[in-house]
Amino acid sequence: YFIMVNFSNFNKDATFKNLNIITNTSANQEEVEKDVYEAYENFLNFLDINKDEAFDKVQLFRQSHGKFAIKQLTWLSSGASTMESSRTWYCFWGMHTLRLLNYPINDKLAHNVITFIKACQNKDGGFSGSPGQLSHLAPTYGAVMALLEIGTEEAYCCINRKSIFNFIKSLSVGDGSFHMHIGGEIDMRATYCAISIASILNLDMDVLFKGTAVWIRDSQTFEGGFGGLPDVEAHGGYTYCAVAGLALLNKLNTIDLTNLSCWLQLKQMPYEGGFCGRTNKLVDACYSFWQGSIFAILKNFTKIEPNFIYPELDAKALEAFTLFISQDPLGGLKDKPGKPCDLYHTCYSLSGLSIAQHYHHKEKVEKVVLMVKVKKKEKKLNEKVKTTKPENINGLLIRQEQGAKWYENTFDDRASDENELLDGDRLKKLEEKADKLWKDDCNIFHKKNNTSAANINWMEIILSKGTFNDKITAMQLSIKKSAVHSLDHLNGLVSICEKKKLRNLYLLLRLLKDLFMSDLLPLDRKLIPFNRRPLAKLKELTNGDSNAINKRLIMWKYESELKNVYYKFIKALDGCSSVVVENIANQSSSFLMDLLMERPERESEILTMLVNQLGNPHKKNAAYIIVLLKKLIDKHPTMKEVVIKEIETLIFRKNIPLKTQQYAVGFLTQIFLNVVEKNVAQQLLKIYFALIKTLLAKENNECKLMDLVIVGVYRVLPYAKDKINDMNKEIESLYKLISVAKYSISMRTLRLVFKSSSIVGTVSDQFYASLYRFMFRDHPSKYQKDFFSLIYDSVKHDLIFERQRAFIKRLFHIALVGLPELAAEALFTVGRLVKTNKNLILLPENQDFDIFKVEKEENNTSDIEVEDEDEVYYDYDIDDKGNIVKLEAQIDQSKFKTPVENNDNEKKKFKITKYYNPHGCNPQYSKAHQNPDVELIHLKKHYHPVVSDFASKLIHKTEIIYKDDFKEDLSIIRFLDRFAFQKSKKSSKNSIKCLAVDSEEYINMNPKKIPLDEAFLHKYACLKLTKSKNVDEDRFSINSDEFDEIIKNFSDKHMVDEEDYSDDNLDIFEKELEDKNKAGRKRKRTSDAEKSLYEVLKGVDTEEPEDSEEEVGFGYDDNDSGDSDNDSGDSDNDSEGNDDDSEGNDDDSEGNDEDDGEDVDMIGSDNNLDDENE
């Protein structure tokens, strides 16, 4: 115990005054002061003492700190991996801490430390931070000091004074300073380490430290402290190194001690009592030594300079900061409140405490010793007076029958109002009494159940020396036997879970979950804390029976403690849900969900933990949480609103990652509703629209989250029909999204707006204008079917004929410029719409009508200016004789407001629209209803037979019937696959399309049964593949025998006259012959390779690997360039089913390209094909 007289720290008058100017420094300082006061109050509560007697009863927890140091020397957590280069420092900090505490150091620990330090010693004489690293002055200092702290002969034998002398000398810069290591940094720490090592090992100081005192002196700043180098900011650690180094060199008189004293006193914090390291910095426990020790050095300097006035250290304040604020009763000392304990701060905080104690005057120290003796005597007397008998002298109060639960016979009274509660000292005293009664009852229980020595020894052996499985089994049996008397065992098991040792978690988590669900938690109620019990009417509940009162107090106290242990367990489960091992993480989340679904205890905390796991960085774990939450709302549908509310809190939390929001919204979109859950639907819609607004503000228009939100709104909308009219502003915001988002999101948003408008009963003009503009965008094949479905539904429900005609006109434009599958489906959609209204198509009577001629005439016609308040529209039509006539639109004046006239009464002039405007924003005024559909005439001449046929049917007002998939049947990639004689990827309902093009059955098929999209292939097969293979296909080529003979004669000069033929001409023919022979050889090799092309593409090696590229048709010369084209379809055998990702990526092929080169040559050489087929 330490007695501190007249202590005035933690006084609010000494707090920081910011003078109404708030800065980062002042804000941080005020926050630390607040934390210090809270830590002081908590420490007093822990010791159960008041402020008046705090300074008489404050205690240094020597045993806890000693165990903490031992633990740090034997095992370090993964968080200390960054200290790999400072492990010799750990040895010094640990050994020095144990010496300060006078804690026994066993021989094994000392030997292990010595062995490790030996491993860190290098040949150059220095020590490294860890084995295998470079020698460094700082680890050398730590290693030497640790060995001296051990102080055994084995430790001293590790120190080679000569080699250390050479090592220090090798690090000298020459100006008095030192490197930390060879070629390393230069600062005050290196200088101090060198001086300290040389001094304590009695090395030659004069040789090593020439000019060092001058270099240190030059590092003193104007404010009095010392920096790491000359001309840098003063720092507490460097100041200690400088002052201590000069003291060891006997050169303290060379510096400005007055300024140093002032600087030191300003660094002791007036409120906290500890020291800070630099100006305007926060308090830090380690500076208790770095700064506090300088006071002791300067005080000792008065022995040399009696006239020197040394600065006074507020030793009492420093002791108070160390004992009340820095130390942790569980072991270790920390930097400041809110920081974890570590060995570094433990070592230097205790060193500073030691300095503060020795700084006291002699009479005060004698008073401390005297008071300690008095306290010890009082303690012995109190122990003699105390009775050893428990209050419940009648025996065991709480008995649990075999197979029964502790809560079946308990007292579940809860205070109904505030008058039944107790608070303050009355509550505290009653709770202390309950705690004592409970512990006494536990002692009686264990004595009665362990009457035999064999039983006692068995439990002790199992719990101390047994395997992990044996220990938890023994604890489990004890808990099941009597849960009230075995809470310590339960708490021990939960503590193991908190350490997250993966090897133990598999078994232990399930065991604890089963214990809580089967034996500890009530089924139909929550656990009640002690302070919510009706303690004020305790005697009334028990009729004054003392035995009944004691029983209630014990059970109420146990239930309150069990509630706390259970919370620790679910917190441990939450921590295990974030571990890297997927099985453990999912298992922990599953256990949390089981507890949430089966027991009401802590359900809000568990739900929050599970929802927060949607932000788990491991996507599989986050996805598993969605599965668990769906399982929860399926089993408890009434919890939907609670779960959605928790999800909403997560989504709109500050700085939440986009990925977490995506998982959260993904879960919301999977919630199934029914017609009676209108409130839930409205709650979801508010979340979705708020999220849309947020994403638009952040310009995250094309993220996947936006897509999910639109899907969610679309699914929820039918269940909130009554609330749609109240969400006009939210729906209006969707129009902005349509114009700025990517295609898929815009498409879904349009569908969403149309659905909401359909529910209300009226579709707005703004929707049709947005859809009209949307039709100008490029339409990916993935969304082609959805696009035309939306067009059909929208135009079908439109009641304005002019607008319907505009959409029909734009569909024809899409067909004119689109690929065959897009054009065919556009015409098919027009055909479906024509069924609802046959007047939607306007055909010119003159089928030879030329649209380009009309446009030319219109462009040559000058615009007419009119003075009128309204726009006048003109357009052209075709009369009965096929002539072009000008029409004037009849406008309903009631639809327009009369504009206000200007003050000068000048009338505005407008340009008149005289023809169909395909670029207008409003389809209702595009004049499409007054223009014939001449596009059909051009579509009738389309190169694709299906498109041409659809256009012809529309012209003749014939119904269009098509049951297959346009994208699958009319895409270019499918045509190329069929052209290459490859099998279809998907089985078609039409058996003809499943036949190979080069098969006899396909060739012999009746042309009338052939589908239109197969007509060209069938005609090609009939004309090409039925030819005899004996026909010489190269009859016109240069490989003919006669021409070869001529070339040979030319090359041998048998038929050449030198006067008629020059050598240059002969060279041309020789080169051509050589090329043709080479091509022939390639052709021969290729014909063999083509027979096994399928195996080659599957990865089977060929017989001639050096020519493998040519064998599969990739190395032909110009004459055979067409042969390689047919292999493109086999480039990707794994792309089946991915055709939705991008248009034209269907490269899967299962066919065999036989006779590739032959077929390609025939396409170019067959004269029997007419021009159109070519």
UniProtKB/TrEMBL annotation:
GO terms for molecular function: protein farnesyltransferase activity. Residues 60-366 form the Prenyltransferase alpha-alpha toroid domain. Residues 751-951 form the CCAAT-binding factor domain. Its EC number is 2.5.1.58. Keywords: Repeat. InterPro entries: CCAAT-binding_factor, CEBPZ/Mak21-like, FTB, Prenyltrans, Terpenoid_cyclase/PrenylTrfase. Pfam families: CBF (PF03914), Prenyltrans (PF00432). Residues 1095-1174 are annotated as: Disordered. It is an enzyme of class 2 (transferase). It comes from the Eukaryota. GO terms for cellular component: nucleus; protein farnesyltransferase complex. The keyword Repeat applies. The keyword tRNA-binding does not apply. Residues 1102-1161 have a biased composition (Acidic residues). Belongs to the CBF/MAK21 family. This is Protein farnesyltransferase subunit beta. It comes from Strongyloides stercoralis (Threadworm).
